[in-house]
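Lecture notes, unit on protein representations.

Consider one protein chain, 785 amino acids long.
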Amino acid sequence: MLAQAADDVASTMVPPEGAEKYAFEAEVHRMMDIVVNSLYQNKDVFLRELISNASDALDKFRYLALTEPDTYKGEEEIPLQVKIQYDADEHTLTIRDTGVGMTHDEMVENLGTVARSGTTKFIQSLKESGNDDSAMSQIGQFGVGFYSTFLVADRVTVASKNPRDDAQHVWESENASSSFVVYPDPRGNTLGRGTEITLHLKEDSLEYADPNRLRELAQHYSEFVMHPISLRTTSTMEVEIEDEEEEATPETTEEAKETKGDDGDDEIEVGDDESETEEKPKKTKEVTTHSWDVLNTNQAIWTREKEDISDDEYQAFWQVLAHEATSNATSWSHFNAEGNINFKSILYLPDDLPPTYSYTNMEPVQGALRLYVRKVLIGDEFNLLPKYLGFIRGVVDSDDLPLNVNRETLQESKILSVIKKKLVRKAIEMIRQLAKDSEDEGQSEAEIDEEGNVIETEEKDSRYIAFYRKFSPNIKLGVVEDEPNRGKLMKLLRFQTSKSDGKMISLAAYFDNMKEWQEEIYVLGGASAEEIEKSPFLETFRDKDVEVIYLTDSIDEYMLRQVRDHEKKKFVQISSESVKFKDEDEDLIKRREKAYKNTFKPLTKWLRKLYTGSILRVQVARRSLGSVPAIVTSSDFGNSANMERILRAQAFQHGMDQSSFLALKVFELNPRHPLVKKLLDGCPPEEEGDEPFEVAPDILDAAWMLHDMAMLNGGFPISDPEAHNQRLLKVLRAQFSLDSLDLEPEIDPPVEEDEAPEIDFTSDGINMEDFDLDSLNLDDLDMGA
């Protein structure tokens, strides 16, 4: 009987005569005005607050049932649960729990005063008694969260029954007024135990009497609450009903006798009227049914010991967080942070980029990291991880957060800062552990076919390399922005190199391959590894068997501007002018450089004037350039060719002065190349100074072609492609000994005489009289074809 009464939505209660009327404390009335008008940005939170209060009441009863069994004897048969019920016709919403409930005096005290909420006083009594159990540190049975009900309701009715009180009482207030009434419930003891809150919804809040909306909110905020939360749904359907049996009459009795045979046996009489055989229409009626659906079937596995959780359970929880039923997580980290700040957390590395993720701004994924307080969702927009880790999903559950007045507004605090630091450290450690566990993965394995032949299978990436290929820009952005963790993040980087055969290796592996004399980390940037492989800069490094790191991501260039060294070894662009090799005889290098400088001084002086505006400096190369006659390098303070390419491609460079790209290039000559020696012979002699000297046209063209060739060798674009093409045409003309490059006249080919005329198959072009149809034998035709 109690259950049936409890399932009915509380009807509109008119306070009976003699109901006690109380005035809210001034602080309470002021707080209610703040709550309704300014505190809560989102009305949806009222349901979260009420469910959280109900869950706290259930925990409180469970604890008291263990510590005071005499007082709460016989109460265990009522299950601990929360029920949500709506009435769309009456515009009401009811949240009912089977928790500890409130007595008459507790209702007056707890619902009329913010400072003396039920659970606050309960916890205080626990601490005074020396029983400070952290598991019982509730958020608050009725605090400010209760008053969020007036966001959506113009009248709130609370019915409650406590085992220590013989009667069930009702608390009621309208329109967040300055007063409330308390009186015995005229329905009697309908609850058995617990509290029932009925909201009489405002006109602009009728959406909360919709089952889909209620299910969405309850599952979003309270899906991991320990106690079951059920929603009563109503459905209406058409069902078929049978005709009622007709009462026997004298006429029907005589008709029944006439159907009897002479021997008294029953006979079936078939009428001639077709209407008697027609099927009568079926009668139906509407039937309304109610059912309870449990909304929080997902378990808060982060509260369990990780040794007791299987990999399948972790993956299932990942699918709940990511809302992706078919994907799996690459890795995860489940930990309890203990110390001054305690919290529990599970962090996940996704297997693929989230659908809404963009490398343009790397904004964190919406709702990726959820913040809970005792399994109640506080929010998912706190940015607990920096932008570069915004792809990580997970949960954080803390008991130490200062909730102040509600669960919606969590202001910046030292506690939150500590949580952020620990989460970043754990996230980086999780990625590092994935890299460590994947060291032996990705090796190619030989397979044997049916004939016994060995087949080399295609090598697959390890789990970390597969992860890194998708999320490497994030880690590199962390290197740029997160200076305190830069050293750890650098160890997570992977690069292709000139000796890695397409594989990606760590900086530690690069250090293992360094020459004994090598003190620098050599790098070279480009659009792709294939493009870098063709660079002339690599020729000398191949000859010396020195490994070079390939920088193929745009962010690599920005990263190396922030990170000048690693493990006390400096990063050096091999396309810059300052590359030196410590294995060479420095004295010999200096003497050789001095001799070349004096020999080629006329050429370098002339070319510097010739290339004004394009080249900063012309010099004889201090290092071996291999087989190329010249190359353009970047100065120590200029942009590399790859960085210049990136800057040119960016939209904000449109319309900017291009001279900034031309000022810091160094033109290096290969003194051993025959073309350079030939050019030296044709350039103006140094002793002529500024006096007029006529340079042969072919020498001048050769100098400019050498300039364009050096620019391309260095990876820079040609400043004047049209002039470059004209010079190439001159070379081709001389190569083929052509007197002129004038075009030949157009040809006029003759008509071929044996060419068959075209047949016009149109009705006007075919004369049917030309065909002898009488002599046509249809039997000779192969109609099957």
